[in-house]
Amino acid sequence: MKKNIVIIVSAMNMGGAQRVVSILCNYWSQHGHNVTLISTFSGDKEQYYKLNKNVALEKVTDSPVLSKIKVWNLIWKLINLRKLIKNQNPDVVISFLARVNVASALSMIGIKSPLIICERTWPPFASLNNKFLKIYKILFRSVDRIIVQTVKSKDWLTHNFPSNDVNVIPNPAVYPVPLSNERSIQPNAIISQNKKVILASGRLHKYKQFDLLIKAFLNLKEKYLDWDLVILGNGEERDNLNHMTRNFGITDRVHFPGSVGNISEWYERADLFVLSSIVEGFPNVLLEALTYGLPCISFDCNTGPRDIIQDGFNGILVDPNEKELGLSNAIDKIIVNQELRLNLSKNSILLRKKYSISNIIQKWNNILDI
Fold it and tell me: How far is it, in rounded angstroms, from Cα 110 to Cα 108?
């Protein structure tokens, strides 16, 4: 039966939640459902992900008067969001990201359409003020379901929000990863063909702990002269990381190409992938690397990697307390053991089916009774 589906997100800029939103919008609109996407961010942001022409786009506006007064403008936007939702007479409303979830729940008070909120962080609602947790518990009682990406997030929510129905739906893996609008840099423009590549990718932020990865590589660089480290991405830590490699005298072995639109070619060129984050929600980049058959190493942070990697079967999990020594030992183990590399690679490819769009969409369809 055709459904009237409203999806609410802050904006369609680059991000894991936005990628999932684009997949859901495109799939459901292509299968005959009416899909409306509402953006709550009233400013200008580039639409990073391509949407099907049948997806109706709406945007919450700022108040035409007194918009500089934050409280007044917020009230106006909530009223505007409520109006946009009611105009669609939706069969279901799906909201993504913590602050948007709060706005959606407030805007839908008294509206009978079921609301599904999707929480992406660890711990859940981490971007909200913990002082208001009791208020959130009351506000979210009217929420039909909460969708999370990991089992640990579900356990936390089930304990703290016992009146809510919580379901785990991970992100889908898009294989092969399509080209994006960003610049493409060919691997052979950075790395000579006789070199093997340890690849990492993500925002250059302290939570990604690329400094530990560089130190781990420093422990191995003399032992494995034919291996280089490539870290894809941009961010506020770029200058610090560049300074670090200069101080260690390894600028010729550690490369920072920036963000690239052809990450699939980098997965194909790489021989090993490392995720060194101290915290993750659900690491898309790790899942993507695994679907390309890359032997993968990851810190076993609170949520994310352990939902994807079966330690020793399709990747290696490292105790975060072991820091750079744990990473360098795991990298060394994979480099020296070709049989292990081949087995990890063979088993990681199995995730293409488990996390395929069709499998993940079916989980959504079951919840929406489509």
Answer: 6
Quote the radius of gyration of the chain (alpha carbons, Å). Answer: 22
d(CA 250, CA 220): 12
pTM: 0.90
Are 196 and 292 within one domain?
yes
Asked whether residue 178 is assigned to any structural domain, the reply reads no
pLDDT at 14: 76
* Distance (Å, whole) CA 140 – CA 288: 33
Structure tokens at 182: 């960003």
Contact 272, 197 (CB under 8 A): yes
Determine if the peptide bond prior to 176 is cis (ω within 30°).
yes
For residue 120, list its beta bridge partners. none
Predicted confidence band at 180 (pLDDT cuts at 50, 70, 90)?
A: confident
CATH of the domain at 21: 3.40.50.2000
Dig out the tokens for 314 from the structure.
């399709």
Determine, yes or no, domain membership for 45: yes
CA 212 to mean position of chain CA atoms: 22
Q: How far apart are the first and last CA of the chain?
A: 7
Q: What's the total number of domains in the chain?
A: 2
